[in-house]
Amino acid sequence: MRISPKIKKVWKNCVDLQVAHPLGYFKPSTIHEVIAIIKEAENKNYKVKAVGSGHSFSDVALTRDYLINTHSLNKVLRTDRLSLKSSEDADNLFLTECGIRIHALNAALDDQGKALINMGAYTGQTIIGAISTATHGSGITLDGLAGFVEAIVLVTEKGRVLHIERTNGISSAPIELDHIPVELVQSDDVFLSSVVNMGCLGVIYAVVLRVCDSYLLREKRTFCTWNEVKSKLAAGDILHNHRHLEVLIDPYSVNSGKSHSCLITERDICPPGTRTNWFRLHRSVGYTIASWFLPPFLLHEILRVIFNNFPKWTPGILRFSLKTLRDACYIGKSFKVLDLGSANHLSAYSTEIAFTSDKYLEAVEALLHLFEKTKRDGQQYITSPFSLRFVKTSDHYLAMQYGDKPGFVCMMEFPVLNGTIGGEEMLTRVESEMYKYGGIPHWGQYNHAGIGDQTLEKLYPNFNKWLKNYRDLCPCGTFQNDFTERCRIIS
């Protein structure tokens, strides 16, 4: 089988910051075609990378050779393809191809009365794009998306198809895939290397997710100050009192560094019998109405012009935006409440960095000092509040939430409006400052990991275990690119 590529095709990520001019651009719709593309690339000594929705702001997906767009690999598959050890598992397992976007996955789950146990705030990503870069939600008792993966189907070098699970996995035999030979690999070591792999090990064709019955969430958003929030976080009770807790911080002080505005978001599961706010499309009424009359593309252009030409207005705009997000009670289906909403459609990019539970408060103080300094010395501003989200530690080797003990990490995200002057420079300053506090960057966000002293061995304690599995599965380096070279991932 041969699938013809599109030639002279330019691929860009969602904000046009990462651009590839691949030799061959492919959009397969079956696993047979994926296997054929990989074999052809190897026969011609080319590299291969798979991409999803392009919501990565790093160079993780770029290639000069063969680029596989996974959007046509978007089908929900029947779980009877699986040979499960226990039939009781089937009701809360969901099998899907890699290229389904999270909003479509949520709709498919909702049709079955099911839901993701946790998810991030953006639903335009493909499910595997999110999982393989360790995308997360919030909640110190809740895993990121990778934590709900029970199995993956990986197409790696030579077109080998591997069904990979933990040592005590859910299956007694490999998945059935249209007469394709599949090897069942049940190994914690291989599994923890393969789920979060940034496309370095091949193309993840399908994933088995553990899901739950659909549920409602109640969200409350409260306006306050950073000093108030900091004392509550230091005490710790607030982190344990809610299923989800997130904090948005105004990077600029109200009165010469003495007070920063904050927005606390608390979310909890509603008791049975709770009704949704049927008249509310999303959160505060004012926020919803404003989104009707001010579409994201127009809002983006207005803000870009203001930030670039009247930079001193930036702090006031950010403070006002936080106040508009206040909301006493929003109730909805889990995937609607966890979705950030229309703000996701603004053209922006970001850096996100993980911190251990004993370092994040110190890191926030350093950041606030940095933001005031760049404002004072050169009128260079970050153009959005930054967020703190608290997530359970992960055992996946290259997840930035990795921890060898139960606990939580704080994920800090720093968005910048696309097209604003000094945005990339500002994020580089943030990243450099945060490494001083043990920060670990998100693979899919704007980052320079692997440069200078921040080698992956320092950032990830099990990097050498991951590297061994990488070299065992991909001795020829078929899925290498500039990103792997920058991070010193070498076969």
Structure description:
With 491 residues, this protein is α+β, with helices and mostly antiparallel strands. It has two domains: 1-213 and 450-491, 2-Layer Sandwich (Uridine Diphospho-n-acetylenolpyruvylglucosamine Reductase, domain 3), CATH 3.30.465.10; 216-441, FAD-linked oxidases, C-terminal domain (Vanillyl-alcohol Oxidase, Chain A, domain 3). It contains 15 helices and 23 strands. It has an eight-stranded antiparallel β-sheet, with helices on both faces. Strands 6-8-14-10-11-13 form a six-stranded mixed β-sheet. The protein has a three-stranded parallel β-sheet with strand order 3-5-4, with helices on one face. A hairpin with a 6-residue loop joins strand 1 (11-12) and strand 2 (19-20). The longest helix has 19 residues, at 360-378. The chain is globular. The relative contact order is 0.14. The mean pLDDT is 91.
Strand order of the largest sheet: 19-16-18-17-21-22-20-23
Rg over alpha carbons: 22 Å
Beta-strand residue percentage: 15-25%
Number of helices: 15
Q: How would you characterize the largest beta sheet?
A: 8 strands, antiparallel
In the CATH classification, which architecture of the largest domain applies? Answer: 2-Layer Sandwich
Helicity range:
25-40%
The backbone outline, from C-alpha atoms, is globular
In total, the number of strands is 23
Overall structural class, as computed from helix and strand content, comes to alpha+beta
Per the CATH scheme, the topology name of the largest domain is Uridine Diphospho-n-acetylenolpyruvylglucosamine Reductase, domain 3
Low-confidence stretches: none
